Amino acid sequence: MIDLSQINVSTEKETQDFGKFVIDPLDQGYGHTLGNSLRRVLLTSLPGAAITQVKISGVRHQFTSLAGMSEDIVEFILNLKKVRLIIPQDKPVKLILDVKGPKEVKAKDISKTSGIKIVNEDLILTNLADSKSKLTANLIVENGTGYSLADERKSDEIGVIPIDANFSPVVKVNYQVEATRVGRVTNFDKLTLEITTDRTTKPSDALKKAAKILVDHFTIIEEPQLNAKKQKTEKSAESPKLTEDVLKTSLEELDLPVRLTNSLRVGKIETIGDYLSCDNKDLMKMKNMGPKSVSLVEEKLKERGIKIK
């Protein structure tokens, strides 16, 4: 096998949204091993931001139209899905779109709070035909990973429309493996990666983050005892002592939405102790339970001094 110190990672070209990187020389077969692994992580596991909900003044559901607006509400929502943002905090952020016609409404018309950046400000969202037309919409923006379906964020509030959210900042990844040589030996691999992003992150940063995610997972396999010790340390540092009374506390006392409390009860989760002993994957399988629902429960627990890693 080749000495790892001989492997070189070079940048052939990079802009804000495109990067071409070469990794060589690699032992035969490792070009596809690394290329496929990095591609999968780049497309599915990097964090990003997206609009997840919209509430439009005068609109009760998405299968309708708004007076004076050229596009129907479904088209407007599809355009909102294309808005690419950067938000610095983990908590959901509320943005407002408040415009009057006649006007070509663009992403730059969305009001922005401190630290939030819209990278495709010239994206056309809709068109308002005349001076009588008006569009007022409250938008919720969140950070996340991968693709999240609107069904995971159903709301009981009338007029709130959940949106399918593509959080991934990576648009496309191509990789190519060619033969290369070291001295007289010609059976080494040369891996070329082409990464296209939405301009919310540089391709080189995306590549480093993907590599870090893979390294962290391989470390768990290599040193499972070290990982278990780390988790135990983090848990003890973050969680207070849980008394029997706290564990037996009903989830109803957390002041959760009735729909959420009922969903947990159907899954036989009625107390704080029940919730803490349940795996996140099992929670996600329950009806009406999604990332936002889990975050809401954990926020309520946090208010009581119970932090979950």
Automatic annotation (TrEMBL):
Its EC number is 2.7.7.6. The keyword Repressor does not apply. GO terms for biological process: DNA-templated transcription. Residues 1-222 are annotated as: Alpha N-terminal domain (alpha-NTD). InterPro entries: DNA-dir_RNA_pol_insert, DNA-dir_RNA_pol_RpoA/D/Rpb3, DNA-dir_RpoA, RBP11-like, RNAP_asu_C, RNApol_insert_sf. Keywords: DNA-directed RNA polymerase, Nucleotidyltransferase, Transcription, Transferase. GO terms for cellular component: cytoplasm; DNA-directed RNA polymerase complex. Residues 18-224 form the DNA-directed RNA polymerase RpoA/D/Rpb3-type domain. DNA-dependent RNA polymerase catalyzes the transcription of DNA into RNA using the four ribonucleoside triphosphates as substrates. This is DNA-directed RNA polymerase subunit alpha. It comes from Candidatus Curtissbacteria bacterium RIFCSPLOWO2_01_FULL_38_11b.
